[in-house]
Design a protein that fits this description.
By secondary structure, the protein is α/β, with parallel strands linked by helices. The protein is built from 8 helices and 10 strands. The chain has a single domain (41-63, 82-221), classed as Rossmann fold. The chain is globular. The mean pLDDT is 92.
């Protein structure tokens, strides 16, 4: 059931009849209909190949299927992709896909710099983002020398520094040690954002999210029960 307080918020994400097939003909999404409200934390669970990652990649236009997706009432379309990507940040499953410069500062600063912010504002955002993920002092560390847990948190910082209203995360706790997984769960619980998490980690999703959805054969069932 929806939380009444959540329902009084604006609709952050609205998806209508979304279909998507890959070039090889594999049909992954078969008519997704979904509303996610501002500040809601939603978990999406399902088997491998069910369409979790594919759905996330539609939320800021990395993939485009047939149907309609609105972000705070704005249609995702070519003419406003830049604006949409300021609102929706995606944290990939593999942090190496997100960390590509020679040090953590430059990775976290990359997004704000591309927003045209001043150097002082960029430094401020980097400092705040690293503080949130508890990586203060890591500015000059090479991403390649970080542990997996540190990389995951650095990848989240690259999105937080953009100050998006919506964060979509793909398997954020995958392959983490119990200690680092716990720290990441605590971080996700604290974030005051609209969050969509695709994961096989059912216990994490149950702890972090206010609503859990199950995706199977390209379709979503509301409020999965475990």
């Amino acid at each position: 059931m929806y939380n009444i307080e959540i329902m009084e918020n604006k609709i952050a994400i609205e998806i209508k009849n979304l279909h998507f097939s890959y070039p090889d003909g594999n049909c992954v999404l078969r008519g997704i209909n979904l509303k996610i409200y501002e500040k809601e934390k939603v978990g999406i669970v399902g088997e491998n190949g069910a369409g979790k990652t594919t759905l996330l990649l539609h939320l800021n236009g990395i993939l485009k299927g047939e149907g309609e997706i609105k972000i705070f009432g704005k249609n995702i379309e070519k003419k406003n992709l830049r604006e949409i990507r300021k609102i929706v940040g995606i944290v990939f499953q593999n942090p190496d896909d997100q960390l590509f410069t020679t040090n953590v500062f430059d990775d976290v600063a990359f997004g704000p710099l591309n927003l045209g912010l001043t150097k002082d504002e960029v430094k401020k955002r980097v400092k705040e983002a690293l503080s949130i993920v508890e990586l203060e002092g890591f500015e000059h560390r090479s991403p390649w020398h970080l542990s997996l847990g540190e990389k995951k948190r650095a990848a989240i910082a690259t999105i937080l520094s953009m100050e998006p209203e919506i964060i979509a995360m793909d398997e954020p706790t995958a392959n983490l040690s119990p200690k680092i997984r716990r720290k990441l769960i605590d971080l996700l619980k604290k974030l005051n954002k609209t969050i969509v998490i695709a994961s096989h980690d059912i216990e994490m999703v149950k702890e972090v999210c206010t609503r859990i959805l199950y995706i199977e054969n390209g379709l979503i069932s509301d409020d999965a029960i475990f």
